[in-house]
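Aim 2, interim progress. The first record below pairs a target sequence with its structure tokens.
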Amino acid sequence: MQSVKKYVAEFIGTFVLVFFACGTATVVGCSAENGTGYLLTALAFGLVIVAMAYSIGNVSGCHINPAVSIAMLVSGKFGIKDFIGYVVAQFAGAIAGAAALMGFVGKESGLGANALYNGEILPSIIIEVILTFVFVLAILGVTSKVSNSGVAGIVIGLTLTLVHILGISFTGTSVNPARSFGPALFVGGDALSSVWVFIVAPLVGGVLAALVYKFLDGKKAE
């Protein structure tokens, strides 16, 4: 039963992320030329993490992102059964969130879907790996001490805001395979055909962050 509660919490968290954050990107725009909308979109993603961290964090840890879950798996803080359950719940939540958002703004709005940087795959993969690496590294660091529990949600939310402030100009910022897949599924076209980039790159970034943090933390322990 406890596992089911964790999966439900991850579903809810990812639903909220897509509905509110991708919804904000859709409503206010996320063009770098439109400074206010750009910053509002970055803040929306960060604020959702803060809100969810302090509401479902005590239930599931508030991953709401397969890249975070795979980092926890690689770090040995997570079992394969829960990893699969979390990822399924996250993708389901993202799809439900995108579907609900589409009911209000229509798929023609783009639903906050990601896009390749200048239409090129390699630069898009590189920027997404870097952005995800920084985001997940911050998560691993701030959650490594119980004493940080009171501020962890704020730190993680601000870090997600940070990577969006840079990344929006390149790919719209994914750093989250589920967040990318939900909108792309309904938008279709180029968004769906290139969504694999925004699934693979964040997962690679998450694994790299876990390996690097394990190395750094291990050296510190010595």
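The second target in this work package is listed in the same format:
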Amino acid sequence: MKTIELNIKWQFLQMEELDDKERVAVEKAIEATNNSYAKYSNFNVGAALLLEDGSFVIGANQENAAFPSGLCAERAALFAAQSLKPQCAIQMLAIAAKNEHGLTAKPVSPCGACRQVMIEVEQRYKKTIEVLLYGTKGIYKIHSVEDLLPLCFLDEDMNQ
């Protein structure tokens, strides 16, 4: 038997420690929470993408009474970006969330379905996507989506 260890590093930062682009991305993610339609969960999530051309695309979660018909903020933003500017790689993804008490204190992490879409976008452009997870008590800065989804399933896995 062989034991393999995975090591993942991320930074824990405060808003004032972010560079200008990171700060704007987080602010846009926070603003995007206002575009959420979360009638059932009352959990409003916003996402902001910084594209390589310097533009931003935002997304917000959209719920539906037929629960599988809703969409997370991350995928809403990613699919919008891919539809609007398919030639443009994504450099950064910021995520923020709020509930009935306001913005969450702890950073919110993307669900598994969003992580799978995120890793495929990263692989599509062959460029890492920096991920910023916002909470009022601090921000997680993750270098790459691959750090959020180790042992991920990719197209190449189907051809081995």
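Residues 130 and 144 are 5 Å apart (CA to CA). This observation will shape the mutagenesis plan for the next reporting period.
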